């Protein structure tokens, strides 16, 4: 957290938290809900895109979770809980200096190492790491699937086309990681976050 945020929290310790004002889309975009009604479904209450690079960076630096798995933006002394339309971290694929695949969050942080991968029934790919749960952004999903391969060396996207046997683990950059199937109703409990706190 920023020093000025920590100082504001110390100076005004009992500012009530707010809900319904901020959301994070499944593509990693922050959205403001000026009437505080951001707890509906994304198509019901899409909100207004936040486009200022300074504000986006400020939110990203002060974004974290509480012990219950509720993610928030600490705006000075006030905690602003965030509706998560995908996951706390929206992931994109980049390469490091050696050309190895690298996952990066919507806030520009390196993500991983991944400890578990999850596929949901709609084809979304989630990851679990020490930083919390991540969702691979749709724009990078095909590239990530091309990068992942099964334990026997088959590209994961080939296996998805013809799933002839269960896949229990996949490889990304030489590291074997478990892969599981995830039902929509088990998303929050399995990945440890609350979408609408």
Concise account of the structure shown:
The chain is α+β, with helices and mostly antiparallel strands. The chain has helices at residues 3-11, 53-61, 138-147, 156-161, 187-191; strands at 18-24, 30-32, 48-49, 63-65, 71-75, 78-84, 89-95, 101-105, 110-111, 116-119, 125-129, 132-136, 149-150, 169-172, 175-181. The strands form two sheets. It has a nine-stranded mixed beta sheet with strand order 9-8-7-12-11-10-15-14-13.
Describe this protein with a few key phrases.
5 helices; 6-stranded mixed beta sheet; alpha+beta; 9-stranded mixed beta sheet; about 200 residues
Q: How would you summarize the topology of this molecule?
A:
Layout: H1 3-11, E1 18-24, E2 30-32, E3 48-49, H2 53-61, E4 63-65, E5 71-75, E6 78-84, E7 89-95, E8 101-105, E9 110-111, E10 116-119, E11 125-129, E12 132-136, H3 138-147, E13 149-150, H4 156-161, E14 169-172, E15 175-181, H5 187-191
Parallel strand pairs: 1-6, 7-12, 10-15
Antiparallel strand pairs: 1-2, 2-3, 4-5, 5-6, 7-8, 8-9, 10-11, 11-12, 13-14, 14-15
Could you explain how this protein is built, in words?
20% of the residues lie in helices and 35% in strands. The protein is elongated. The mean pLDDT is 87. It has helices spanning 3-11, 53-61, 138-147, 156-161, 187-191, and strands at 18-24, 30-32, 48-49, 63-65, 71-75, 78-84, 89-95, 101-105, 110-111, 116-119, 125-129, 132-136, 149-150, 169-172, 175-181. By secondary structure, it is an alpha+beta fold.
């Amino acid at each position: 957290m920023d020093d000025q945020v920590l100082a504001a929290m110390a100076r005004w310790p009992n500012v009530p938290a707010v809900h319904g004002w901020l959301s994070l889309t499944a593509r990693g975009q922050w959205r403001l809900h000026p009437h505080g009604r951001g707890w509906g479904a994304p198509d019901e209450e899409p909100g207004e895109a936040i486009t200022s690079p300074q504000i986006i960076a400020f939110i990203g630096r002060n974004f974290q979770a509480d012990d219950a798995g509720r993610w928030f933006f600490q705006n000075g002394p006030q905690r602003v809980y965030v509706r998560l339309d995908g996951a706390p971290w929206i992931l994109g694929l980049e390469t490091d200096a050696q050309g190895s695949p690298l996952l990066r969050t919507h806030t520009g942080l390196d993500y991983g190492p991944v400890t578990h991968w999850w596929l949901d029934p709609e084809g979304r790919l989630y990851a679990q790491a020490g930083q919390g749960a991540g969702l691979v952004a749709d724009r990078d999903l095909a590239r990530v699937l091309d990068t992942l391969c099964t334990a026997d060396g088959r590209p994961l996207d080939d296996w998805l086309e013809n799933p002839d046997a269960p896949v229990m683990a996949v490889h990304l950059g030489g590291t074997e990681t478990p892969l599981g199937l995830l039902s929509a109703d088990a998303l929050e409990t399995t990945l440890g976050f609350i979408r609408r706190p």
